[in-house]
Specification:
The complex is a heterodimer of chains A (336) and B (270).
Chain A: H1 5-28, H2 36-59, H3 63-81, H4 92-106, H5 108-131, H6 136-139, H7 149-158, H8 168-188, H9 195-217, H10 221-254, H11 262-295, H12 304-324
Helix pairs in contact in A: 1-2, 1-3, 2-3, 4-11, 4-12, 5-9, 5-10, 8-9, 8-10, 8-11, 9-10, 10-11, 10-12
Chain B: E1 7-11, E2 17-22, H1 25-52, H2 58-83, H3 89-93, E3 96-100, H4 108-116, H5 118-121, H6 128-136, H7 143-148, E4 150-154, H8 164-167, H9 178-187, H10 190-201, H11 208-225, H12 230-233, H13 238-249
Antiparallel strand pairs in B: 1-2, 2-4, 3-4
Helix pairs in contact in B: 1-2, 2-4, 10-13, 11-13
Classes of the chains: A mainly alpha (336), B alpha+beta (270).
Chain lengths: 336, 270
Amino acid sequence: MILDLPRFIETERSYWMELDRMTAKIESEAAYRMGIAELQRFHYLYERCSADLAKMATFSAEAEVQEHLGSIVARAYGEIHSTPARPKNVRPLRWLFYVFPRTFRCHVRLFWLAMAITVFGASFGAFALLTDPDAKTVLMPFSALEGSPADRVAQEESGKNNRLAGQHATFAAYLMQNNIRVSIMTLTFGVTWGAGTTIVLFSNGVGLGAVSADYVHAGQSKFLLGWLLPHGVIEIPAILIAGQAGFLLGGAMIGWGRRGTRRERLRSISGDLITLTVGVAVMLVWAGLVESFLSQYHKPVLPYELKIGFGLVEAILLTLFLGLAGIGDSAGSKSE
Amino acid sequence: MTLRNRTIEIETSEGVTFSLLLAALPSRFLAWTIDACVILGVSNLVGRSLALIGFIGFDLVQAVNLFFYFAVSIGYAIALEWLWRGQTLGKRLLRLRVMDRQGLHLRFSQVAIRNLMRAVDALPVFYMVGGMACLLSRDAKRLGDLAADTIVVRHPKLPHPDLAQLLEGKFNSMLRHPHLAARLRQRAPVEAAAIAIQALVRRDQFDPAARVEVFGEIAAYFRSLVEFPEESVAQLTGEQFVRNAVEILAGRTRSSARPDAAVPTGNAPA
């Protein structure tokens, strides 16, 4: 016995077309919201068409009509079974001062892991440079740093080397986009079960350690602090938070000691990943501005004490922000 | 499941199963190429427009250009896939759509993660990592799709089934013999009925000669199952015979046929 297809189609086709029209309207108009009556009708049509599809799959082998109805039901299914995805109101300040720091603290152990790997890389970089000065060309992150620290300090302090004159904004934009790109790489490499994130963090640490050791060994510690602290106290933690997000992703891929499938684990962390990523981007925009407009000026234009003091104040504020902001706010959810 | 036409089946809580056609690698690459051109075009346009504004210094113009290109290259797909429910301009043109793996709405975090993951998927050049992942993955997922639990499906433009071929209610001379009609219903397998319905629905897609041949073969098969009196079927073409047989197999009885009709069923002779 097969379905009386002609009669069946004759009866049901108007419902299929109505569901198709309603779904198309929802899809094409992002701001469209249905009233209660429309919702009830939409739900009724979806259930009716689903039942029709089941009936056709059971009693009729008419593939073309079935495929057509299937595509209508598939589109409506997504609308019916999803919770509203759009937040009713976006509150960026609340997100910045409550959600981001709470999310950071929620996964703070991964931040310490990122920091430990970076410190290990820095120690390795410093050790390698001090024991084998010829390795400088390999260890330094930029070729401009391969020369003598003393020569560079003398040149910077002479004031003859204002290479950024008239290019501060461009340089700031370059730094922002470059650092955000590196952060995104650090995060996304977490998909390699955390191995890629580990390599990026270690590599950053090696460069940082080598530069620091080079300047300290040359007796230019004050210059180094004045140069790196103003932007580094924001930039380095930002990269570490990107590493934290990378390990969060890697942890979800591995799933040690956690229930659920990989898909469920990834779903559960997706909101936190985005929160950490956006937080890192905000931090790096600030760091880029500081590096371009402040860090590149040295004595006698800006005394080192002032720059170091500025960096220390930033470090204290950042620590307070990440450690305390959002505490006691019970309504502040930690993700989107 | 072939590489060209991979599908994914989703079973709803109502117990209904439907399948989605996964987008093939070439169409995804083409959509990305279109999007890349759009990004370049928009960035270029903004850069040229800013340069025309005299009072903004060259430094600031350069900075805005640089950062704008970066923001657009990352934000373009995130914004459009979020606003257009899983589609960018390239995807829309090629009828592709990003969907949640379970057929549900995309959440913002999913859209953002799958697009941020392009940083890895694009390595080393031209999305080689992502392409390899797509080829190796059962659901054609690049790493971004894997992390965000999304799939990219293709909604081909389905031609509306030609239901007129099925819905025509013409006189069925074979229904004058209810006992023979009942015997046909009893003997004809479901598969044969399905083939006959398919042939009717796709009638207009056949060449005239092929149509005569196809319907002739199907009619001969039904004739071999039950022999109707000659006076009832002598004037029928193969197509008319098949149409009448389908009506009988669908459970129509004499009361639902049009007894007043004087001409045999069918379209113009094929």
